[in-house]
Amino acid sequence: MKKVGILVGREKSFPDSLIERINERGQGDVVAELVKVGGVRLDEGRTYDLILDRISHEIPFYRGFLKRAALEGTVIINNPFWWSADDKFFNYSLATKLGIAIPRTVLLPQKDYIESINNESLRNLEFPLDWQGIVDYVGMPAIIKPFDGGGWKNVSRVNSLEELWKVYDTTGTLCMTLQEFIHFDQFVRCYCIGQEEVMIMPYDPRKQYLSGEQYINDPTYLSPELAERVTNDVRTLCRALGYDLNTVEFAIKDGIPYAIDFMNPAPDAERVSVGDFYHNWVTDNVVNFIYQRLEQPQAQPRYRWDALLNPEPVAETAGQALSAVASAAEQAARTIIPQPVREIPADIAAGVSELISDAATAVSEFLDKTPETEATALSEAKKARPSATKPPKKASAKSTTRSKKSPPPEV
Ligand SMILES: Nc1ncnc2c1ncn2[C@@H]1O[C@H](COP(=O)(O)OP(=O)(O)O)[C@@H](O)[C@H]1O
Ligand SMILES: [Mg+2]
Q: Which residues on neighbouring strands pair with residue 258, listed in sequence order?
């Protein structure tokens, strides 16, 4: 009997559907349930063959538990080691090397730092920052967003250097990116399951979360050529990053799909949000993938931390072909490896936490606002839904003292 655990936050219909379908298909040979976990002993044995993780990005205890479970050979979707290491700016840069179109993006030094950091600690930082150079490169309007964010938290559109400074001054200890704003003609959000199965969802970010109008079911929304390019880009990105469940968002302008968000290892799959069709599709495909993984031979763990984070290609582990913990041979082939080893499709010419947090919220409206009111609209939206948008407690506490403790703002 194989055991599948689902680790969840507030979402309801997706875990329920998964558990129901896995159990139906398993007929007692495979059993799915919500994970139950308390204090974790360091010598704890394997309790699940596979865990689908939907929430450890917000609950560090779960992340620690999952990493420990990986050591026992539990398959974890998505790889908790890589998810911990990843960030959006790395993603954007990697994607550029893979030939994906990415809006011009700059990683910004933080506005504030933890309390023990003072001016002396920051001698490596260029000061003052070349704000004009940054803005000249990115262009205006631009989007300022956290380098590891999700769920639309702390995402703002700015139209001038002054607006940028105003927003930047509120970002506290968050590390932010500044990105060229794409005045998109079309927008799609794409599921990718098992780094292979792709569903392109026309998605209107200007519509309200749960309005039933965000996700449109229209298979002809993109031209066949564009759909093919988007599908290839989605697979390229998810394979390079090793995510088995992810969404990739594209803002499409003049026929070019710009990938703007593809670090969504716990993508929204709730029926009330994505609708019946997409909910059923993602459930079916995740269930298929789970069964696929369960059927793969279980390997002897090879206790090397780098095997957990970034499994080696099979060929290099003679005699141990399927032995890397958690991912084994399959993930080896999916890992970021040099171009001569991995074949990049020639036709690619250019190219958290988004959990059903309340977060998508009213924030979507900011895209429609007039330049003067956008930043304000965003902060109003944040006030209206404080649970979805408030910064981590620690950071917010610190940010109240930042003017004393931090170096003066460059602006
Ligand atoms: N470069 C961009 N150009 C246009 N719109 C953008 C851009 N970046 C983000 N957005 C808008 O902001 C929303 C949230 O940003 P995103 O990068 O997806 O962050 P999150 O991980 O919080 O979802 C996107 O769905 C999109 O509507
Ligand atoms: Mg997004």
A: 251
Q: Whose CA is nearest to atom 26 of ligand 1?
A: 205
The CATH-assigned architecture of domain 104-181+369-405 is 2-Layer Sandwich (3.30)
Q: How far is the CA of 309 from the centre of ligand 1 (A)?
A: 28
Taking only the tens place, the pLDDT of each residue in 228-265 is 999 999 999 999 999 999 999 999 999 999 999 999 99
For the chain, give percent helix, strand, coil, nearest 5.
Answer: 40, 15, 45
Q: Mean pLDDT throughout 399-409?
A: 32
Alpha carbon of 151 to ligand 2 centroid (Å): 6
Distance CA 379, CA 370 (A): 15
> Do 51 and 4 meet the contact criterion of CB atoms below 8 Å apart?
yes
**What are the tokens at 294?**
């369960």
CA dist., res. 88 & res. 177, Å (int): 9
Residue ranges covered by each domain of the chain: 104-181+369-405
**Best probe residue, ligand 1, of 83, 155, 208 (max atoms within 8 Å of C-beta):** 155
Ion ligand 2 residue ranges (Cβ < 5 Å): 261
- What is the per-residue DSSP string for 169-183? TT-TT--EEEEEPP-
CB contact set of 92 (below 8 Å; sequence gap of 6+): 102, 105, 177, 179
Spacing, Cα 151 to ligand 1 middle (Å): 9
Taking the CA of residue 364 as reference, the ligand 1 atom at the shortest distance is: 27
**Is a pLDDT exceeding 50 seen at residue 358?**
no
- If one residue of 92, 147, 152 were mutated to test the ligand 1 pocket, choosing by the most ligand atoms within 8 A of its CB, it would be 152
Ligand 1 in contact with 26 (CB < 6 A)? no
276/382: higher pLDDT: 276
What is the distance in A from the centroid of ligand 1 to the CA of 355?
A: 15
Cβ contacts of residue 5 below 8 Å, gap of 6+? 32, 33, 34, 35, 47, 48, 50, 51, 52
